């Protein structure tokens, strides 16, 4: 083009003007291509790529390639998001995603149904504004989310909801919801049945025990009947002990909340339990006591007594007369601790995790021979749970066992007058 302009310029004698016109035409031509390129970029979805020629074709091809790659990734992402949404919608559990301040970012259909959410309007709203229950507010704000919270939700009919908060990311939380009405109803029925059955069994047993005592005390009784009568009385006493323990367990189970409690003199309680062991006709030779008399435990005295008495009773029952028992109560930075150590037969490692199950016995024969109900450690576990405490069991077979109750620091106070 410049060549043609130069030739025209030379012929006409106006070289600069001819060249200038040529350059201007060139710029205008490229500018028109730029405009067409711009128009195509804006209306890419409606029109095909323009044929602009030269270097422009490379640019158009490059843009097409980038665009195709972007569309491919977008489609994949959308498909994945859709699949995830469909999968979570199909979950039988409710799922709610919460941001750091408790605002709802997303929820599935089941959560909408269980919490009565209104769809998009509720996105961004704080969950504790929608579910206005003090227990839930405390659970959400609290630090311990290891266990779900059980909430009664139904007004007319009884309905129960299990809510479990699972933290993830940077302060975000996942709230899992489950309708546990059926399970809770069955559990309540089971508890009621055990409590009622134990209660109903107690009266006839009292009558039987009473008559057995009267007959055994009868001087005119044939001496041959004395041994079977004694055995019947022993078995009746065992039944009474089992029923008594079942009722204690039922009462403990009925109380869900944690104990507030008053200061308990654990040192005095252990000293009394020690005396009771020494007063038995048969007891381990040595029962030592190492206690911190200045610290008090905050709890329910009757419940704590029944827990410690069970541990001491087991140690005394399972330890031979030549053995030793040690009772300890001490306080450190972690809280208060009460331990019962014996030199009895010990417990196999495999049995330790199952020890607090109802009626679980390591050696059924041995337990029955000692008159055990198989419920003692289940009672201990429940009492400790109600005090926010844990039970640690350490044992070596043929060497002995140590049962330690660990109480949290807020349950320990100094005795009045000791600062
Ligand atoms: P039980 O009334 O039968 O003693 P527990 O619930 O108190 O029931 O204890 C459960 C089982 O744990 C017992 O049957 C016994 O086998 C075992 N056990 C408990 N304490 C001791 C101990 N100090 N030494 C050895 N075994 C023990």
Describe this structure in words.
Helix content is 50%, strand content 19%. It is α+β, with helices and mostly antiparallel strands. It has 4 domains: 2-80, no CATH class; 91-179, 2-Layer Sandwich (Beta-Lactamase); 183-254, Orthogonal Bundle (Helix Hairpins), CATH 1.10.287; 262-413, Histidine kinase-like ATPase, C-terminal domain (Heat Shock Protein 90, 2-Layer Sandwich), CATH 3.30.565. The strands form 3 sheets. A 5-stranded antiparallel sheet has the order 2-1-5-4-3, with helices on both faces. It has a 5-stranded mixed sheet with strand order 7-9-10-12-11, covered by helices on one side. Strands 6-8-13 form a 3-stranded antiparallel sheet. Strand 9 (324-332) and strand 10 (335-342) form a beta hairpin. The mean pLDDT is 90. Residues 310, 314-315, 318, 342, 344-345, 347, 355, 360-363, 367, 372-378, 401 line the site of adenosine-5'-diphosphate.
